[in-house]
Amino acid sequence: HVTQPPGDILVFLTGQEEIEACVELLQERCRRLGSRLPELLVLPIYANLPSELQARIFQPTPPGARKVRWPFKRGAGLREGACPGCVPGVSQVCPRCVPGVPQVSQVSPWCPQASANQRAGRAGRVAPGKCFRLYTAWAFQHELEETAVPEIQRADLGALVLLLKSLGRD
User: What whole-number distance in Å separates Cα of residue 33 and Cα of residue 111?
Assistant: First the structure.
């Protein structure tokens, strides 16, 4: 944050709990550093967040400050039909992809290479930007899938099958 040129930061995480934990940690670190650090506006975004708090990511960043945006599930619940990565001013992106973790739920802690590349493309849409990947190049090439597995293959259909059975459907 201190050594990078102006522009907001977009951090992709896997869910609301992880976003809230990271936001809290970052806010605490910013409080400890106080005035030694340029202003950093930490703005989480997820569907359960009230719309007035979601709207903050669309407001212009004050001069001398930087925003950190934390979208979840491609901007689920965002007002104005916009994706957080499409909001002007993003110059740095941190996609979180955890290689080698099996697909066990709809909100998986990894992403395929295609998604990682798409997220990296959000850096610098209107000006030069950077993507800080939180994994190695080897892990990207050898552990991440090339494309996403369809949700129907990732979802646990057990509850749906039990519901249909309870309704007398085979």
Answer: 33
**Residue at token pair 């991440």:** 144
Q: Which has the closest alpha carbon to 134: 109, 154, 104?
A: 109
Q: What is the pLDDT of residues 40-94, one digit of tens each?
A: 888 888 778 888 888 887 788 888 888 888 765 444 444 333 454 455 677 777 7
Own/partner contacts of 114-120, CB < 8 Å, gap of 24 or more, are 114/146, 114/147, 114/148, 115/148, 116/140, 116/144, 119/10, 119/12, 119/85, 119/93, 119/95, 120/93, 120/95
Q: How many CB atoms lie within 10 A of CB 168?
A: 6
Distance CA 90, CA 38 (A): 17
C-alpha span between 95 and 135 (Å, rounded)? 9
pLDDT tens digits, 83-120 = 544 556 777 777 665 444 443 333 444 678 887 787 77
Please state the pTM of the whole predicted model: 0.62
- Tell which residue, 134, 96, 116, 123, has the closest CA to residue 9: 123
The domain locations on the chain are 9-167
Q: What is the domain class of 9-167 according to CATH?
A: alpha beta
Cβ contact 41:11 at 8 Å:
no
Residue for token digits 């998986």?
A: 108
